[in-house]
Design goal:
The protein is built from 3 helices and 19 strands. The relative contact order is 0.09. It starts with a helix and ends with a strand. It is of the alpha+beta class and 423 residues long. The chain folds into 2 domains: 92 residues; 325 residues, Beta Barrel (Porin). Helix 1 runs antiparallel to helix 2, helix 1 packs parallel to helix 3 and helix 2 runs antiparallel to helix 3.
Length: 423
Amino acid sequence: MKQLTVMLGLSLFLFSTALQAQVSEAEVEALRAQIEMLTKRLDELEKRNAATPAPDTVVVVEEERVVPETVVIVEENQQGLAALEERVAAMSWAERLRWKGDFRYRYENIEQEGKDTRNRSRIRARTSLIAEVTDTVEVGVGLATGGDDPVSSNQTIGGGGSSKDVKLDLAYFNWSGLTNTNITGGKFSNFLIRPSKQGLMWDGDWRPEGLGVIWDNDFFFAQGLGTWLEGDSSKGTEFAWTLQAGLNFDTGDWGKLKIGAGYSVFDVAGRTPLFGEADDFFGNTFVFNASGERVFAYNYENIEAFAEWGIGKFTLFADYTINQDAPIDDTGYLFGAKYGSAKDKGQWDFTYFYAKKEKDAMLGLLTDSDFGGGGTDSKGHAFVGTYAFHKQWNFKATYFLNQVDLDDKKDYDRLMLDLNFKF
């Protein structure tokens, strides 16, 4: 009886302690084992009372008293376990949800030949909620400032403090149930390779809408996406796709090298602008159709080659593309270098690149929205420096020394000063 009493007391102590602490699945299992032990002991006592006469009245009375008490303790522990399991389930679900986001404050000065100098302050805020539905399925929903521009979430501030627009930025699923493979669908982040994150063909803020597949075993990589430029058949369905593949080499003392190639098809010839006003072709060539509307003159069937080599803090990168459908002004290229990495407090980096985008080298709508003011028909230099005050926030300065409207070679200079925060 003393051993039983000690065991019951110890069980109560362990149970109360578990309720006070932040519990885990292992603790729940341990408590369940204790309850099973108490239940087994109770069964043994009941069998002994049923099978054995009671010559010693005191002992019988004691056991008759202990058995009901044991029943009460077991029932209380079972109720506690149920409550505990509910807490664990709630905690487990909360752990499957996470928030992330970023905020940027920007001042910029733009001087373009033939236009007035422009100064403005802009903000960009993005946040997303990501849920791990299962171990292999993720669903995310995100919001961002800005208007309908497919390659920018910037919002110019002013207007007497008026409220600003917030739009759907992300709405996607991602399945990783196959080895080295991710399949995503919906409205998702642009995962296409951009050497040193420069946007010769693709702006980093572009959110494809469709399906994408990524396969990477650390040496070989291949990926592709199909995106709807217009997904409503009543408006004329337009679907585009792109593929990329290549190799990653780790040469030890000679650094790391990524090389690859891509192919993309945007069948837009004869179509009116995909975004913006009736004359917004973002540098691409247009013609007039039989109805007098401005339409794209060419499709954009691009072959791309890219490379990036890094050793220590130094990186060289290059990107090249040619549009097979355009007879002239069909080439774009970018090359540059980067030193340093502003990923933690006190760290800095500096990047320089030169780029040229002929009128029909790529679909102007989706290329970098800052270089040359966005779109194609531009060339020139870019200088970028970043200093990290903390792992989660930094200061970045970018200066573009460009020319636009290449037939007339108009100067385009742009300074951007950014404070960037992550959370």
